[in-house]
């Protein structure tokens, strides 16, 4: 059984008041780059981006990080990614501080962790 980490890109980037709102695409790119070199115990990292952040990272896979561009609602895409991975038998964790999203992810079979946890790993 492999492990999958689904990252709410907007929520993680927004957890640090470092001026990300001035350059959402750049903030998404920096998060993606950090995930590529992070020493975290997951076989696959799924980074979900929405809105202006999508311009910072192309959709697709780079090494163990797969970037997904949400067509509209980032939360729905995060839950769909978590559900699909869980249905394939993977252990799934979702990173988001959004309590409603955490509850939806739990309903899809995922554990939830906070952006602070992930940022501490990076």
The structure class reads alpha/beta
Please report the total strand number as a whole number: 6
- Element order, helices and strands? EHHEEEHEHEH
Mind telling me the C-alpha Rg? 13 Å
At the fourth level of CATH, the homologous superfamily is 5'-nuclease
The general outline is globular
What number is the mean pLDDT? 94
Query: What is the CA–CA distance across the termini?
Result: 24 Å
Compute the number of helices: 5
Number of domains: 1
Strand order of the largest sheet: 3-4-2-1-5-6
Which sheet architecture does the biggest sheet show? Answer: 6 strands, mixed
By CATH reckoning, the class would read: Alpha Beta
CATH fold-level assignment: Rossmann fold
CATH architecture label: 3-Layer(aba) Sandwich
What percentage of residues falls in helices of 4 or more residues?
Answer: 40-55%
Strand content: 15-25%
Pick out the low-confidence regions.
Answer: none
Short characterization:
The chain is an alpha/beta fold and 122 residues long. Helices cover 40% and strands 24% of the residues. A six-stranded mixed β-sheet has the order 3-4-2-1-5-6, with helices on both faces.
Q: What does it look like?
A:
- Strands 3-4-2-1-5-6 form a 6-stranded mixed beta sheet, with helices on both faces.
- It has one domain: 5'-nuclease (Rossmann fold), CATH 3.40.50.
- It starts with a strand and ends with a helix.
- With 122 residues, it is of the alpha/beta class.
- Helices cover 40% and strands 24% of the residues.
